[in-house]
Write a structure and sequence with these properties.
By secondary structure, this protein is mostly helical. The chain has helices at residues 5-11, 14-33, 64-142. Helices cover 74% and strands 0% of the residues. Helix 2 packs antiparallel against helix 3 (64-142).
Length: 143
């Protein structure tokens, strides 16, 4: 039997989602606003130094100073990319944990719903039997 979307939406632990949403949104905004030249942990423009390294022609030999500059720029960019990757991994981890909590809540709600259905069926059977007994007693007393 397919579960209606509304039932799933009601089963989501919205209090947890709302509680963790600001941190997730802030982290996502930080990742989206970050530019390749930005340093980790700082906003754009705060102490960022981007070295514009011209792409040399393959036929032109590079001097040791140019090689050193390019190596430094490459190392800086690699460090920034590692930081961005770490931030992205942390955000994905938070989202995965939040989704796992939501799925656990959905499973708990499904289990509770099944338990309530069984109880409702038992109550319906008891009510039907009670109704039959009351009607039988009324017929016997009045008849």
């Amino acid at each position: 039997m397919a579960v209606p979307w509304w039932t799933l939406a009601k089963a989501v632990p919205w209090s947890d989602v709302i509680e963790h949403a600001p941190a997730v949104v802030n982290a996502a905004r930080k990742l989206l606003k970050r530019k390749p030249g930005d340093h980790a942990g700082g906003d754009a423009g705060e102490g960022t130094t981007t070295v514009a390294v011209p792409v040399p022609d393959a036929a032109t030999p590079l001097t040791p100073a140019e090689l050193s500059t390019q190596l430094h720029a490459a190392r800086t960019e690699t460090a920034q990319l590692r930081t961005q990757l770490t931030d992205t991994q942390q955000l994905l981890q938070e989202l995965a944990e939040q989704q796992a909590r939501a799925l656990a809540q959905v499973e708990d709600q499904r289990t509770q719903l099944n338990r309530l259905r069984r109880h409702l069926m038992a109550v319906a059977v008891v009510a039907a039997v009670s109704t039959v007994l009351v009607v039988g007693l009324l017929v016997k007393v009045l008849g």
